[in-house]
Design brief:
The chain is mostly helical. 57% of the residues lie in helices and 3% in strands. Helix 13 packs across helix 14. The longest helix has 21 residues.
Length: 345
């Protein structure tokens, strides 16, 4: 009897995500960790497959440290099993089907780097029910909540109302500034109250107190973002959140000027042929660690690197190889004497 082989020519390009994960694991997890888990499920469709943390970081526009923290988090949550080799290096990952938590606590995000923004005070203490009710009677607040609903395209939830009141009462934002805050976030395709709060806290840290100050800051950073994208050869789109976070590190935390950042981007494209934020970040982090302040400092580092490379290169003796033109005895001719003889003939 002949055996029949069944081939699937219409394989569905889809990734299965468990409802248990969505309902019970995802809400408590860091967004970057969720992204890593979903990507693992994506490449599971081609399992067994080999990849490096560096490749994964490049694909997800984050650092290898972010990937490792996410893997450890999901390992503690019981969704993956990590395998190590004899050198205690990660060598394998196994996906474990999610199980109902049964009110079990999710693991805490150990070692996670928190954004350098002030932490919001406890809203339960700072905004009592009586204070919330008082604010909701304020005509300015009533108008603000109405405008917010128009921007967000929905009726505000109690949590969203409380957040907006927090901006007003605790961060001391004016109603006009809160309105511009919402407008700014919505114009960048972000309607999540968590994102709006993140921007509000960042503005508070930068001591932004007026709409004009917010516009100037937004305009400045938008211009710088697109300058960096252009230097990396990216055009025709806005930067995504992860790219903005990396660029903010270069601009705000490292304090690099645009010419230094553009130099790193140019080197990235020349070395990799790609618009790799991770590669540019490695360059700029190295320069930060070496206290680079100007392009002159970069030139000094380049010269030192070139010198070290030349010192390491093997030195060759410059000896002339013998050939058929210099192997025989050379003859000496007196051309003046020959000329006299020719003239006397």
């Amino acid at each position: 009897m002949n055996m029949i082989t069944l081939h699937d020519a219409s394989r569905t390009e889809a990734t299965f995500l468990s409802n248990i994960f969505i309902d019970e694991y995802m809400p408590e997890a860091n967004g970057e960790f969720v992204k890593v888990y979903i990507y693992l499920l994506r490449i599971l469709g081609n399992a067994p497959v080999s990849f490096s943390l560096e490749q994964m970081a490049d694909q997800l526009l984050c650092t290898e440290g972010d990937i490792l923290r996410a893997l450890k988090y999901w390992s503690k949550a019981g969704l993956i099993a990590l395998e190590e080799n004899e050198d205690h290096q990660l060598s394998g990952i196994s996906i474990i089907p999610p199980k109902p938590l049964s009110h079990k606590e999710m693991p805490k995000e150990q070692g996670e780097e928190k954004p350098s923004v002030p932490q919001a005070p406890d809203k339960n203490k700072s905004l009592t029910p009586a204070r919330i009710q008082e604010l909701k009677q304020n005509e300015e607040i009533i108008q603000l909540l109405y405008i917010a609903e128009q921007y967000l395209g929905k009726t505000l939830s109690p949590t969203e109302i409380q957040k907006l009141l927090f901006f007003y009462d605790e961060l001391h934002f004016s109603a006009d500034l809160i309105e511009y805050l919402i407008e700014y976030c919505v114009s960048h395709s972000h309607k999540s109250i968590r994102y709006i709060e993140k921007v509000a806290l960042a503005w508070s840290e930068e001591k932004i107190t007026t709409v004009q100050m917010a516009k100037e800051a937004s305009s400045r950073y938008n211009k710088e973002y697109f300058t960096i994208l252009k230097a990396l050869g990216i055009s025709g789109r806005n930067p995504v959140d992860t790219e903005i976070a990396i660029m903010d590190t270069w601009i705000k935390e490292y304090g690099f000027s645009m010419d230094i950042i553009q130099e790193a981007c140019s080197r990235t494209v020349l070395q990799t042929g790609q618009s790799s934020f991770q590669y540019a970040d490695k360059i700029l982090t190295g320069w930060k660690n070496k206290n680079v302040k100007s392009k002159n400092d970069i030139a000094v580092l380049d010269a030192e690197h070139k010198k070290r490379r030349l010192d390491r290169a093997p030195r060759r003796q410059s000896t002339s190889a013998p050939n058929r033109f210099n192997n025989f005895q050379q003859r000496d001719y007196d051309f003046d004497e020959y000329e006299k003889r020719l003239l006397n003939k």
